[in-house]
C-alpha cells in the first residue's frame, strides 16, 4: 500500500517576505531556497514574478538552479501576471503557476467590485492560460473561509475543469476555527464532483493564533498539501509555521497516519538561516525552534528528564536539528577542526573560502573562550554578507563616549575601489555617532525605521546581532551585522544596509580618501 503523503509547500520567499519590515536580496532568497531544498520541502513558492524585477529574477534563478522541488510563482488572475510567471519559470525543471483571485462577497464588493460570474470567468480564463504554459497549475480562491459555500464549490469545480491540478483553500485573514475549517474542507470533497482530479491544499493565516491548528484540522479532513512559512512569517500575524505543522504530523503519526518528505534534522538550521536573513529573532518559547523549546528549568522536570527523556520531551531535540556542543572550538583549534564542524553544520567550503573564514574564526576565538555552533553560523552569515553585497568594507571603528563626553566615532572604510577613507562624527549616543560617521563617508544618510539588537548566545562574551531597517526614496533597505562588540556590529549592519541602497540606487558621490 502506497504511503499517504502530505505535500509541504513553502512560501517563506513570497508570503514570508511580505512581513512588514522584511527585505531580501536575490542572493539571500537563493540561499534560503537551497536550504529549503535540503530540508526537503516539495514546493518552493519563489516569489511573485510580476510584482517587481527583483522577484522575477529570484523566481528565474531559483527555478533554473534548484532542481528537485517544484518551483512556483504567484500570479494574479490576469494575462500579464500569468505570462510573467511563465517567463520567469522557463528554466525550471518542475514549474508551477499559482493563480489567485478573491472569492468572498466581502472582497468582491469592496475590493474587486465584480459579481460572481465575472470572477468565475476571470478564474477560468487565467487557469486555462497558465495551463497552456505549464501542466502544473494551482488556483487559490482568496478569502475562501469567508466565501459563500455554493459559490466556492462552483469556482473550484470550474478551475479544475480548466486545468488546475491543485486547489488551495486559503483562510486569508485567519478567521476560521479548526472545527469549522475542517468542515469546509469536507464540504469541498463532498460537493465538488471533480475534486478527485486535484490535490486539495490549505493556506492559513495566524490572526487568531490558529493557523497551525486549522492546517492540521484540514489534513484530518483530507487536505494533502499544506502551505506555510518557516518561523510562521508572513502578512500581519503571519502564516502557519511549517516547522510546527511538520512536527505535528511527524510526532502524532498515530492520529494523522500520513508522512512527509521532510528531513526534520534540517528544521533548526533552516529556522536560524531564515531568522538571520530576515532580521527577525525567534521568540525564546517558540515551539520546535525557540531557544527554550527543549530547556527544563523546573527541578521536578529536570529530575524526570535525567531519568528518562520522554517524561517531559515528546520529541528528541536532535531530531529537529538541535545539536549539543560536544566539539568545543577555541583559539587553539585548527583548520581541520573548523572545517569538520562547519561540515557537520552543513557548510561546504573551498580551500580559499576556508582560509578567509579561518581568519575571522581566529579573530572571534581571541575574543571568546569557546565558539559555539550558533557563533559559527553567525560567522558564516557575516562572511556571506560581505561577499554578497560587495561595496564598502568596514576597516576600523573607534568610539569615545561617557557620561560627561559627547559621543564621537572615528570610522575607516575601504571603498569598492580598494582605497581607504576615514572620518569622524559626533552623535547623541555612540551608535548614532558610528552611523553618522559611516553615512558621511558613503555620502547618503537614509531615515532610520528600526534598530534591533539581540545576542546570539548567552554570556558576557556573546556575539551581538544588529539589524537596521532604513528607508530612502520610498524603499526599505535591511542591513545586518554581528560582532562581540555591539558598536562594531552596528557599524557593520548600517554599512550593509547602505551597500544595498547603493547597489539599488547608485552612489550619490565618491567618498574622499584621507589615508
A few lines on this structure:
With 515 residues, the protein is an alpha/beta fold.
Describe the model.
The structure is a single chain. With 515 residues, the chain is α/β, with parallel strands linked by helices. It folds into three domains: 272 residues, TIM Barrel (Alpha-Beta Barrel); 53 residues; 116 residues, 2-Layer Sandwich (Double Stranded RNA Binding Domain). 41% of the residues lie in helices and 18% in strands. An eight-stranded parallel beta barrel has the order 1-2-3-4-5-6-7-8, surrounded by eight helices. The longest helix is centred in the C-terminal third of the chain and has 20 residues. The protein is globular, with a radius of gyration of 25 Å. It starts with 6 loop residues before the first strand and ends in a 10-residue tail after the last helix. The C terminus is likely disordered.
List keywords for this structure.
515 residues; TIM Barrel; Double Stranded RNA Binding Domain; eight-stranded parallel β-barrel; 14 strands; globular; disordered C terminus
Number of helices: 17
| C-alpha termini separation | 73 Å
Structural class: alpha/beta
Largest sheet: 8 strands, parallel, barrel
**CATH third-tier fold name of the largest domain:** TIM Barrel
CATH class of the largest domain: Alpha Beta
The spatial strand order of the largest sheet comes to 1-2-3-4-5-6-7-8
Secondary structure: helix percent: 40-55%
Which helices and strands occur, and which strands form pairs?
Blueprint: E1 7-10, H1 26-39, E2 43-47, H2 53-65, E3 70-76, H3 79-88, E4 95-102, H4 105-112, H5 116-133, E5 137-142, H6 149-162, E6 166-171, H7 178-191, E7 199-204, H8 211-220, E8 225-228, H9 242-251, H10 253-256, H11 267-278, H12 299-307, H13 335-344, H14 351-367, H15 373-389, E9 393-400, E10 408-414, E11 420-426, H16 430-442, E12 447-455, E13 464-472, E14 475-483, H17 486-505
Helix pairs in contact: 1-2, 1-11, 2-3, 3-5, 5-6, 6-7, 7-8, 8-9, 14-15, 16-17
Amino acid at each position: 500500500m502506497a504511503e499517504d503523503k502530505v505535500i509541504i509547500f513553502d512560501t517563506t520567499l513570497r508570503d514570508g517576505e511580505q512581513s512588514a519590515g522584511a527585505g531580501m536580496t536575490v542572493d539571500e532568497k537563493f540561499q534560503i531556497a537551497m536550504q529549503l531544498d535540503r530540508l526537503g520541502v516539495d514546493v518552493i513558492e519563489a516569489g511573485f514574478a510580476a510584482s517587481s524585477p527583483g522577484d522575477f529574477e529570484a523566481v528565474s534563478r531559483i527555478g533554473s538552479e534548484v532542481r528537485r522541488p517544484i518551483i512556483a510563482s504567484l500570479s494574479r488572475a490576469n494575462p500579464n501576471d500569468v505570462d510573467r510567471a511563465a517567463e520567469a519559470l522557463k528554466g525550471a525543471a518542475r514549474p508551477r503557476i499559482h493563480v489567485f483571485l478573491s472569492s468572498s462577497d466581502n472582497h468582491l464588493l469592496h475590493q474587486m467590485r465584480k459579481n460572481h460570474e465575472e470572477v468565475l470567468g476571470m478564474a477560468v480564463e487565467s487557469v486555462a492560460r497558465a495551463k497552456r504554459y505549464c501542466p502544473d497549475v494551482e488556483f487559490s480562491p482568496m478569502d475562501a473561509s469567508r466565501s459563500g459555500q455554493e459559490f466556492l464549490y462552483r469556482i473550484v469545480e470550474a478551475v479544475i475543469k480548466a486545468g488546475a491540478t491543485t486547489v488551495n483553500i486559503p483562510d486569508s485573514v485567519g478567521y476560521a476555527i479548526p472545527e469549522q475549517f475542517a468542515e469546509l474542507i469536507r464540504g469541498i470533497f463532498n460537493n465538488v464532483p471533480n475534486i478527485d482530479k486535484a490535490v486539495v491544499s490549505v493556506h492559513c493565516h495566524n490572526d487568531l493564533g490558529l493557523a497551525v491548528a486549522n492546517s492540521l484540522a484540514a489534513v484530518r479532513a483530507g487536505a494533502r498539501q499544506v502551505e506555510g512559512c518557516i518561523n510562521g512569517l508572513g502578512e500581519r500575524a503571519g502564516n502557519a509555521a511549517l516547522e510546527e505543522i511538520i512536527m505535528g504530523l511527524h510526532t502524532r503519526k498515530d492520529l494523522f497516519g500520513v508522512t512527509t518528505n521532510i528531513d526534520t534534522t534540517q528544521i533548526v538550521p533552516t529556522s536560524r538561516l531564515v531568522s538571520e536573513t530576515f532580521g527577525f529573532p525567534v521568540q525564546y518559547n517558540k515551539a520546535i525552534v525557540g531557544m527554550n523549546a527543549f530547556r527544563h528549568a523546573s527541578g521536578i522536570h529536570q529530575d524526570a528528564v535525567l531519568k528518562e527523556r520522554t517524561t517531559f520531551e515528546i520529541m528528541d531535540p536532535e531530531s529537529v536539528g538541535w545539536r549539543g556542543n560536544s566539539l568545543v572550538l577555541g583559539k587553539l583549534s585548527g583548520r581541520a577542526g573548523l572545517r569538520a564542524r562547519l561540515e557537520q553544520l552543513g557548510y561546504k567550503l573551498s580551500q580559499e573560502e576556508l582560509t578567509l573564514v579561518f581568519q575571522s574564526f581566529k579573530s572571534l576565538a581571541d575574543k571568546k573562550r569557546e565558539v559555539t555552533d550558533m557563533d559559527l553560523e553567525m560567522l558564516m552569515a557575516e562572511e556571506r554578507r560581505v561577499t554578497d553585497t560587495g561595496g564598502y568594507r568596514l576597516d576600523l571603528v573607534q568610539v569615545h563616549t561617557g557620561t560627561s563626553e559627547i559621543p564621537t566615532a572615528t570610522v575607516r572604510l575601504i571603498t569598492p575601489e580598494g582605497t581607504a577613507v576615514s572620518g569622524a562624527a559626533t552623535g547623541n549616543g555612540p551608535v548614532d555617532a558610528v552611523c553618522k560617521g559611516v553615512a558621511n563617508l558613503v555620502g547618503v544618510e537614509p531615515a532610520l525605521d528600526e534598530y534591533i539588537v539581540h545576542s546570539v548566545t548567552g554570556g558576557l562574551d556573546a556575539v551581538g546581532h544588529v539589524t537596521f531597517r532604513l528607508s530612502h526614496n520610498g524603499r526599505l533597505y535591511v542591513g545586518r551585522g554581528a560582532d562581540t562588540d555591539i558598536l562594531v556590529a552596528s557599524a557593520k549592519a548600517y554599512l550593509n544596509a547602505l551597500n544595498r541602497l547603493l547597489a539599488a540606487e547608485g552612489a550619490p558621490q565618491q567618498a574622499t580618501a584621507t589615508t
